[in-house]
């Protein structure tokens, strides 16, 4: 890849208060942009973060061909910068692309663009647990014209946002008994913009009833639990941690996969199997539901304090010693180069 680099004349970094960042609102100096036309990716460029211009008829606005990724860059106390399992994101965006009839982006280009961008803006990454540069690669269809067909032109871009430790408090979730975020044969496994658009309204409705998120169930029966908001889902029944199997309806999260491996290493028993709504309710009533949480790159782990189902509320009976705390710390230690990385997940940028 012949990467062109245009740097900012003057960094904006001194205008930023890093102690008051709200998640995903502040962007670092540079972005990566690459065009797809005439059947090829071309003009890969790193340049100052700035608005882009598109035709009003650009197909992304009308037919929603848009996919994205979410990852982070971390800094240790010696100023070394690391990515966490980036290969997983390179592969996953291409799975999303192929399901939305979009061209794949070459993994080597993705890797080189991301590392160069992170390196150029590495001052924007502060050390310390929770501080990171959130990386948002995405692809959109840009062909002008409202013809309902896959576009011929695309943009692949990466924008980056400095973020702080992000703790929204424990969440109460509403179990979906009517709405679905994904269906068999659909594209729930893809990180596609449309999956998010479809979630907002049911989530707003849940919020009006006092819940912060929706716990999604399968579209066919609404009896099996699938994801929590935009996170993968975990339960602790007695002393066993359980997560639902991935499927074409569920996003195959990097954090979920990492938790499976880390929990085993910590000697915590894990199971990957379907979980029924009725099992959750019974466990809560018997006091055997000891933890519940969502997991994803943004928060690592987001604890669930209780859930509502058909108008009734249930609680999670949390013991003093939580698996979630141990697992979260173990993952942070790997990400921030505070511990050995027996899995080979940490990738140094420079
Ligand atoms: C991104 C995402 C996740 C979490 O994936 P990570 O790779 O762990 O960040 C889970 N569910 C949905 C629907 C997502 O979009």
TrEMBL record:
Acts on leucine, isoleucine and valine. Pfam families: Aminotran_4. The modification N6-(pyridoxal phosphate)lysine is found at residue 191. NCBIfam families: ilvE_II, PRK13357.1. Keywords: Amino-acid biosynthesis, Aminotransferase, Branched-chain amino acid biosynthesis, Pyridoxal phosphate, Transferase. Coiled coil: none annotated. This is branched-chain-amino-acid transaminase. Pathway: Amino-acid biosynthesis; L-leucine biosynthesis; L-leucine from 3-methyl-2-oxobutanoate: step 4/4; Amino-acid biosynthesis; L-isoleucine biosynthesis; L-isoleucine from 2-oxobutanoate: step 4/4; Amino-acid biosynthesis; L-valine biosynthesis; L-valine from pyruvate: step 4/4. It catalyses: L-valine + 2-oxoglutarate = 3-methyl-2-oxobutanoate + L-glutamate; L-leucine + 2-oxoglutarate = 4-methyl-2-oxopentanoate + L-glutamate; L-isoleucine + 2-oxoglutarate = (S)-3-methyl-2-oxopentanoate + L-glutamate. GO terms for biological process: isoleucine biosynthetic process; L-leucine biosynthetic process; L-valine biosynthetic process. Its EC number is 2.6.1.42. InterPro entries: Aminotrans_IV, Aminotransferase-like, B_amino_transII, BCAT-like_C, BCAT-like_N, BCAT_family. One of its GO terms (molecular function) is L-isoleucine-2-oxoglutarate transaminase activity. Belongs to the class-IV pyridoxal-phosphate-dependent aminotransferase family. SUPFAM superfamilies: D-aminoacid aminotransferase-like PLP-dependent enzymes. Its cofactor is pyridoxal 5'-phosphate.
């Amino acid at each position: 890849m012949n990467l062109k680099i245009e740097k900012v004349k003057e960094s904006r970094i001194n205008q930023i208060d890093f102690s008051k960042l709200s998640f995903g609102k502040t962007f670092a100096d540079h972005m990566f942009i690459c065009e797809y036309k005439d059947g090829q990716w071309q003009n890969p460029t790193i340049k100052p973060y700035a608005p882009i211009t598109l035709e009003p008829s650009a197909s992304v606005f009308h037919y929603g061909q848009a996919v994205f990724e979410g990852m982070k860059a971390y800094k240790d106390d010696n100023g070394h910068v690391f990515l966490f399992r980036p290969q997983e994101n390179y592969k996953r965006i291409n799975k999303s692309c192929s399901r939305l009839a979009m061209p794949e982006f070459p993994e080597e280009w993705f890797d080189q663009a991301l590392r160069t961008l992170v390196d150029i803006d590495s001052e924007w990454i502060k050390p310390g647990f929770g501080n990171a540069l959130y990386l948002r690669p995405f692809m959109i269809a840009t062909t002008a014209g409202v013809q309902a067909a896959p576009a011929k032109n695309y943009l692949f871009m990466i924008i980056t946002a400095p973020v702080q430790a992000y703790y929204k408090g424990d969440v109460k979730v509403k179990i979906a008994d009517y709405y679905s975020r994904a269906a068999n044969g659909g594209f729930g496994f893809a990180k596609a913009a449309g999956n998010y658009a479809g979630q907002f309204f049911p989530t707003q409705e849940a919020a009006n009833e006092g819940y912060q998120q929706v716990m999604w169930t399968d579209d066919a029966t609404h009896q099996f639990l699938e994801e929590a908001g935009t996170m993968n889902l975990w339960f602790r029944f007695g002393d066993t941690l359980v997560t639902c199997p991935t499927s074409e309806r569920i996003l195959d999260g990097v954090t979920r996969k990492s938790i499976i491996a880390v929990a085993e290493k910590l000697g915590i028993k894990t199971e990957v199997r379907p979980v029924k709504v009725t099992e959750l309710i019974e466990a809560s009533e018997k006091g055997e539901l000891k933890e519940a949480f969502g997991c994803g790159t943004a928060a690592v782990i987001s604890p669930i304090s209780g859930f509502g189902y058909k108008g009734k509320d249930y609680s999670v009976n949390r013991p003093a010693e939580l698996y979630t705390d141990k697992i979260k710390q173990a993952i942070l230690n790997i990400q921030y180069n505070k511990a050995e990385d027996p899995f080979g997940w940490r990738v140094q940028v420079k």
